[in-house]
Amino acid sequence: MAHTAGRTTPTGKGRLAALADLGTRPGGRRHPLVAAAMVLPLALLLGLVSGWGRMVLTQASSVAGMLGS
Fold first, then answer.
1. Three-class SS of residue 55?
2. Over the chain, what HEC string results?
3. What is the pTM for the complete model shown?
4. Angle at alpha carbon of residue 63, lines to 57 and 69, rounded to 5°
5. Rounded to whole angstroms, how far apart are CA atoms 17 and 24?
6. For residues 16 and 22, is the Cβ–Cβ distance under 8 A?
7. Which residues pair with 24 in a beta bridge?
8. Exposed (0-12), middle (13-18) or buried (19+): which is 68, by Cβ within 10 Å?
9. Cβ atoms of residues 1 and 12 within 8 Å
10. Could you read off the pLDDT of 12-59 as tens digits, one per residue?
11. Is 30 helix (H, G, I), strand (E, B) or coil?
């Protein structure tokens, strides 16, 4: 096999590790708002795929009908 130039090892954290540490407190725990911002997009996507959006609209229209709106 041909010899290729070796890669230098990074001295600091990689980009993904630095991104994963975003919002982390000194004790190793994330701020609750950072955790929510990470989870909510996936939760909304899963909800829309599983039909959650239609269910919520149906219930909201039922409540609005009961309130007389």
1. helix
2. CCCCCCCCCCCCCCHHHHHHCCCECCCCCECHHHHHHHHHHHHHHHHHHCCHHHHHHHHHHHHHHHHCC
3. 0.39
4. 100
5. 12
6. no
7. 30
8. exposed
9. no
10. 567 777 666 666 656 777 788 888 898 999 988 988 889 888 888 899
11. strand
Q: Record the tokens describing residue 37, joined without a space.
A: 């911002």
3-state helix, strand, coil in the chain (%, to 5): 60, 5, 40
Structure tokens at 41: 């997009």
> Closest Cα to residue 35, out of 26, 25, 27?
25
> Which residues are CB-contacts of 35 (< 8 A; sequence separation ≥ 6)?
23
pLDDT at 54: 87
Is there a contact between 25 and 31 (Cβ–Cβ < 8 Å)? yes
Nearest-angstrom CA–CA distance, 16 and 44: 24
Token readout for 23 is 């919002």
